[in-house]
């Protein structure tokens, strides 16, 4: 069976999303990576070992830098998601995802969570992580998987090397995402999304 996306519907959804939530300004690469490295260092002081994830990981692998039109940085810790915004300089949002481990039918999976503004929760499923390697992102070392292309293909599909503008990327349509429940309207107002200034 061949499945294709309804491009008319996708155009409508992108327009609606951009109307309700205007796209953020692309981040400055050097300042943003410096902020990410500072957060990494602070986490290391507490014995927490974060690694690159999502678009930041893809940018490291594909661009050897930050994706030029991205609007945030992503790291994972062994999910709820925290968005951290520096108090000074460019206000680069850094999404910190926590990674969960679960066993299904004798297979170990790792996953991080995602949440839409309407309360729909998603799981992004990853294969068991191999031992970690280090990767240089603009002069800063970060932990990464030792099999980056395998992980990138799992999330972005076989055409991961084709650049897609971040404003048109539909994150909950990732190849490795599945719906995972929903928060109520009340939970969305009081429990689910907070930004912390760092």
From TrEMBL:
The keyword Transmembrane appears for this protein: yes
Organism, as annotated: Caenorhabditis tropicalis
Superkingdom per UniProt: Eukaryota
Chief place of localization: membrane
Protein name: LicD family protein
Record localization: Membrane
Membrane topology: Single-pass membrane protein
Keywords: Membrane, Transmembrane, Transmembrane helix
Lineage start: Eukaryota, Metazoa, Ecdysozoa, Nematoda, Chromadorea
Keyword field contains NADP: no
């Amino acid at each position: 069976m061949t499945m294709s996306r309804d491009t008319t519907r996708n155009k409508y959804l992108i327009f609606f999303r951009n109307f309700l939530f205007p796209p953020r300004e692309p981040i400055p690469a050097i300042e943003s990576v410096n902020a990410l490295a500072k957060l990494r260092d602070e986490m290391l002081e507490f014995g927490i070992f974060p690694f690159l994830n999502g678009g930041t990981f893809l940018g490291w692998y594909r661009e050897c830098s930050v994706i030029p039109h991205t609007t945030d940085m992503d790291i994972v810790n062994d999910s709820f998601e925290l968005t951290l915004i520096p108090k000074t300089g460019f206000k680069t949002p850094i999404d910190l995802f926590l990674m969960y481990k679960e066993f299904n039918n004798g297979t170990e999976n790792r996953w991080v969570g995602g949440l839409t503004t309407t309360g729909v929760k998603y799981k992004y499923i990853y294969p068991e992580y191999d031992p970690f390697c280090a990767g240089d992102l603009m002069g800063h070392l970060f932990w990464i998987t030792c099999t980056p292309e395998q992980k990138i293909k799992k999330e972005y599909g076989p055409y991961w090397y084709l650049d897609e503008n971040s404003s048109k990327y539909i994150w909950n349509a990732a190849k490795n995402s599945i719906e995972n429940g929903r928060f109520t309207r009340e939970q969305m107002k009081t429990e689910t999304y907070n930004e912390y200034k760092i």
